[in-house]
Amino acid sequence: MNKKSIQKIHSSLKNLEKTQPTNKKFSFKFESNFLNYQSHLRDFSSEHYKIFDQLYSELDIRRSIDDLFAGREVNNTEKRAALHHQYRQDSTEGDFNFKKITKPFIQMINKGGFANIITFGIGGSYEGPKLLQEFTQKSSAKLNYYFISGPDKDEFNSVMKPLADKKNFYIFSSKSLSTDETLTCLKWLGSKRTTKNSIVVTANPKKARSLGFLENNIIPFLETVGGRYSIWSPISLSAAIESNFSEFLKGGAAADKMLLGDSREDRKYQKLIKVLVFSDLWFSNFRNKKNRVVLSYSWKLRSLANYIQQLEMESLGKNPNLNSIFQETGQSVFGGFGSTAQHSYFQLLHQGTSEFCADIIYSKSSDSPLLSAQAQGQSSLFSSEIKISKNPLEQTNSNSPVNLFHLNTLSLSSLGFLLATWEHRVFLTASMLQINPFDQYGVAAGKAVAKKFLS
């Protein structure tokens, strides 16, 4: 890493910061079998991209990618690798063979004649499985699925009381099994939990045994799989009971292959990730756009924003590296189901004073053509050139950066490709910022101080 070269790059970016925002859109398209992408980025140009790409080379980001996928130590503060991506690999064996690991437990559930599957978990043990379950849920499903995060007794009772006389199966999901919210639910369930109607998914089998779980009721996964990256692991067991979960893994594997590959299509995909990363860094560090709204125009993806929020804000919500040219790390991410949001906080987006960027995700549907029209229409309005209206009350902000993602089908493979792509975006952003996206000491601090007040 050449410090003089990096300082020169920083000077170039600062010079661009002084220029007036341009109304020209940076035009970039990406097309694949899984998703298409269209940039609507004003005040971002080929010149911006070129300068950021120079920094990308100076920081040797390609080596960081290779280290991640080679299983080297990339979580430097906790001294370990980050191996969640291994669940997605075609030749997965042993500890990362999702199908082999979960098959006995799925058979246990299917043969047990259960009516309801209730998952207890919070954070990555909640957001990922809940998103997948909502995405895969069919009207013909044989089972009903519920999620309880804890530790509010009202939440627990609202789910459990109506199911008191039903045949329920309980899944406890916790990487550490030290999460107070999940342990509280375990205590409340009490004797209703038996060896025949419950399992635990954890990276701490020893603690599971101490809590009364037998060996045959424990699904282990490794410490090297972070909670917010565990959607690919047995943490998502509930979504695999009545769906072909391997399609989700294949979609993620396809994105990994393109990130690592060297074909023309692969290089196009790599440019997609760079466009996302470089523009995020430009707008947050040099244009004061510290907020990003994530909007999904599909009811099946109504919890996507919550999942993305945890993935990004836990991974990128760190102090800036003193050696970095960037002072702003992660953006504040919010969002939800697009149609609902339009009748909630879009007034602020269109005419308020807050600066923001937008990610919009949709899939064309003959059953719901309005959703597609809304996604494309809002993308156009957010990013269009400001037009002065004769009536000042009608003037909208416009000129906000938009990334428009179109899923070619609402399939598990397309979702897997999208989420792996988002992980790549987060990892490359962290590498450019020179921060660790795999630890969360702030979360630990919050838990510790709560225990003091509890005692």
Model description:
This protein has 455 residues and is an alpha/beta fold. The protein folds into 2 domains: 3-78 and 249-442, Glucose-6-phosphate isomerase like protein, domain 1 (Rossmann fold); 87-244, Rossmann fold (3-Layer(aba) Sandwich), CATH 3.40.50.10490. It is built from 17 helices and 12 strands. A hairpin with a 3-residue loop joins strand 2 and strand 3. It starts with a helix and ends with a helix.
| CATH H-level homologous superfamily name of the largest domain | Glucose-6-phosphate isomerase like protein, domain 1
Query: How many strands?
Result: 12
Distance from first to last alpha carbon:
49 Å
Mean pLDDT: 95
Helix content, binned percent: 40-55%
Give the tally of structural domains.
2
CATH class category label of the largest domain:
Alpha Beta
SSE order, one letter for each helix or strand: HEEEHHHEHEHEHEHEHHHEHEHHEHEHH
Named at the architecture level, the CATH assignment of the largest domain is 3-Layer(aba) Sandwich
Number of helices: 17
For the sheet with most strands, the description reads: 7 strands, mixed
Strand content: 5-15%
Structural class: alpha/beta
- Poorly predicted segments: none
What general outline do the C-alpha atoms trace? globular
Radius of gyration, CA atoms, in whole angstroms: 23 Å
What are the main properties of this structure?
7-stranded mixed sheet; alpha/beta; 5-stranded parallel sheet; Rossmann fold; 12 strands; globular
